[in-house]
Write a structure and sequence with these properties.
This protein is α+β, with helices and mostly antiparallel strands. 22% of the residues lie in helices and 32% in strands. It is built from eleven helices and 35 strands. The protein starts with a helix and ends with a strand.
Length: 654
């Protein structure tokens, strides 16, 4: 289906480009197509609007392209208006594509009730491909794959530290990277380690799935031969260490790359099973991710109806075998685009996730962060015997309380386990019979409980009173569920919305041209609404800006937790504003000699400088000087002069 749509799209573009469509406004349309190919969608829209006016609205192709271009900018309402206008014309050339687009757009509100999507910062995304982002189990680092220049060739594995206010400078994971292509898959808890794609053996070229053990360091990658074939196996994604999904071009599939699953039984990974024709098509299916409910599969496909290239889909497991799935559903806008969209990943216990997309038409994928709320009730689609499609709501079943086992039951289960051991563990290639029971109640279904909502409103201005167009990210946690909402200010600097009620909120603004702002809102439960009036510090060229001092204990040059928290905000400001430089001044007021105080003040300044450099700030952007006790504060004018003289002063310059 998608292959046919792409062919028709290319034919239509070629016809316009070479003047084969002799219609009024064709010159504007040709320019519009050129802008579309360059990714300048708003310019393309203006050209096609001019073409439509020149043709007095009589050329259906222009209506189709205006609908498609509004899809490209994720303007659903405008896209539907233009597609309806195209269908009203009676033209048949693009009717099947338009019908698919309308079905996707009309259904997407049944998948997500709210979605926000934004690219990771430019210093995280590179000029080359970056994709496949996933958090480590501790939530400390974001791992991903990148083609950016490095001391190792081709695609390598990278990670970026996660701060409360943003992402750190990416660093190469040297132990997992070679001069061949590697790609990170996912983490494993038992055994502890990670699943990755690579070519770690000598003369290996087809690409296989490997497991890499991990403690406080990474060990040698191990080829999992029972999962691999003579063809390419890639995109490994494990679910609770007992199910492993991956993509493979092995023989016996439906065409291109298909998605397979292997179950771990008795410590052995069983023969991989193809997920069947409901999921797999004659085209490519890739990047599987089974959500934390254990039933909802997200994946990318070029074969199912979509907007163009790879799109992201979801399907719900409706039976006890791995071939029983609901109809795959396109995730719609703005998750998908008219280009390639892959690698859906949902952060456990949150409304956060990541995808990868080349929607900016750079020719390379970039990593995007998403925040979403699932539509309520959660539902899926099934096709009836007569060919009609029916929506089915997912019912939440409260977990049954387990009764204490009596002594007889306990020993009976022990006997069963011993008998299993005597009979022997499953051998490689063993395929278990389908389980004859439904899976247990799941995490994601439990999220269907409606949260308490609180209103939030506020404004953002700089120190000169000017309104700031920016994003305000507010996060909170309730009952172990972390929620992040993103609000956009208007031309007056105001924003308005709602939040799930939490014990505390953290508001973060990280916008180029300003210092990073972070603010904690305590005890919002006592408030009728959350109101924030935020002043950002605008950075001006050739102007200096002093930050609060970093203070030290008597005779110490060690950074305390409060100091590192302040420095982390400075790191974010430096990463977001690459032209910003920092000057450090170390000071002391101790009972020692002048030389000892000079040495101590230098160690304090170096401690701050070393911390910034360790977080990825270039050495050339950080300078420091030690003043010993020559610039102590006057206790007559500063009551806490003694403590505040044990300091490092921070001066920023653009």
């Amino acid at each position: 289906m998608k292959k046919t749509a792409i062919i028709l799209l290319l034919v239509g573009m070629a016809a316009l480009a070479f003047g084969q469509i002799r219609s009024p406004g064709s010159r504007y349309a040709q320019e519009g197509l050129e802008y579309y190919q360059r990714g300048e969608y708003n310019r393309a829209i203006r050209e096609f609007l001019s073409a439509d006016r020149s043709a007095d609205g009589r050329v259906p192709e222009y209506h189709y392209w205006l609908g498609r271009l509004h899809i490209a900018v994720a303007d659903t309402a405008s896209a539907m208006r233009w597609f309806d206008k195209y269908l009203d014309s009676g033209d048949k050339q693009y009717q099947s594509q338009v019908d698919n687009y309308l079905r996707i757009v009309q259904r997407q509100k049944k998948i997500f009730s709210k979605v926000n999507i934004r690219p990771l910062p430019d210093y995280v995304n590179s000029r080359n491909s970056d994709y496949g982002a996933i958090l480590d189990p501790e939530g400390k680092y974001l791992y991903f794959t990148s083609l950016r220049p490095a001391k190792k060739g081709k695609e390598n594995i990278w990670r970026s530290e996660i701060f409360s206010s943003g992402f750190g400078q990416p660093e190469l994971v040297d132990e997992l990277s070679t001069d061949k292509n590697e790609a990170f898959g996912c983490f494993s808890a038992d055994p502890q380690g990670a699943w990755i794609f690579g070519n770690y053996e000598t003369n290996k070229r087809d690409g296989d799935i490997y497991f890499v053990p991990r403690t406080d360091k990474w060990f040698q990658p191990q080829n999992i031969s029972q999962l691999n074939s003579s063809q390419v196996e890639t995109h490994p994604m494990v679910f609770r260490d007992r199910l492993l999904f991956f993509a493979s071009s092995r023989e016996g599939g439906y065409g291109g790359t298909d998605i397979y699953v292997s179950e771990k039984i008795g410590g052995i990974w069983t023969q991989p099973q193809n997920l069947g024709p409901m999921i797999n098509t004659p085209e490519n299916e890739q990047t599987p991710f089974l959500d934390w409910d254990g039933r909802t599969l997200y994946f990318s496909s070029r074969g199912h109806p979509g907007f163009g290239g790879y799109d992201l889909f979801k399907a719900y497991r409706i039976g006890t075998t791995w071939q029983e799935w609901s109809l795959p559903e396109n995730l719609g806008l703005p998750v998908n685009s008219t280009r390639n969209d892959r690698y859906f990943y949902h952060v456990r216990g949150s409304n956060e996730g990541y995808i990868s997309s080349d929607r900016q038409v750079s020719g390379f994928e970039k990593i995007y962060q998403i925040n979403f709320s699932l539509a309520r009730p959660t539902s899926y689609l099934v096709r009836e015997a007569d060919g009609s499609v029916r929506s089915v709501d997912v019912e939440y079943v409260a977990p049954a309380l387990r009764k204490p086992a009596d002594e007889e039951t306990i020993f009976a289960r022990i006997d069963e386990s011993l008998e299993t051991i005597r009979q022997g563990l499953p051998k490689p290639g063993f395929v278990p019979a389908p389980l004859g029971r439904e899976p247990q109640p799941t995490e994601a279904l439990a999220e269907d409980v409606e949260p308490i909502i609180i209103r939030v409103e506020g404004s953002v201005h700089d120190q000169f009173g000017e309104a700031v167009l920016t994003e305000v990210q507010i996060s909170g946690e309730t009952n172990g569920q972390r929620t992040v909402e993103v609000f956009n200010t208007n031309s007056l600097g105001n924003f308005l919305g709602t939040l799930p009620l939490a014990d505390t909120y953290t508001a973060v603004i990280n916008t180029p041209g300003y210092l990073v702002h972070q603010q904690i809102i305590q005890d919002p439960r006592s408030l009728a609404r959350v109101k924030l009036d935020i002043e950002l510090q605008k950075l001006e060229k050739k102007a200096s800006l002093s930050l609060p001092d970093i203070l030290f204990e008597n005779g110490s040059s060690e950074l305390g937790s409060g100091a590192t928290a302040e420095l982390d905000l400075l790191v974010m400001s430096l990463l977001t504003n690459q032209g910003l430089k920092v000057k450090l001044s170390g000071h002391a007021w101790e009972s020692g000699s002048t030389a000892e105080n000079k040495d101590l003040s230098e160690r304090r300044a170096r401690a701050v400088a070393d911390y910034l450099i360790s977080k990825g700030i270039a050495k050339k952007r950080v300078s420091w000087k030690a003043y010993g006790n020559t610039r102590t504060l006057d206790p007559q004018t500063e009551p806490s002069a003694l403590g505040k003289s044990r300091r490092v002063e921070i001066l920023l310059q653009m």
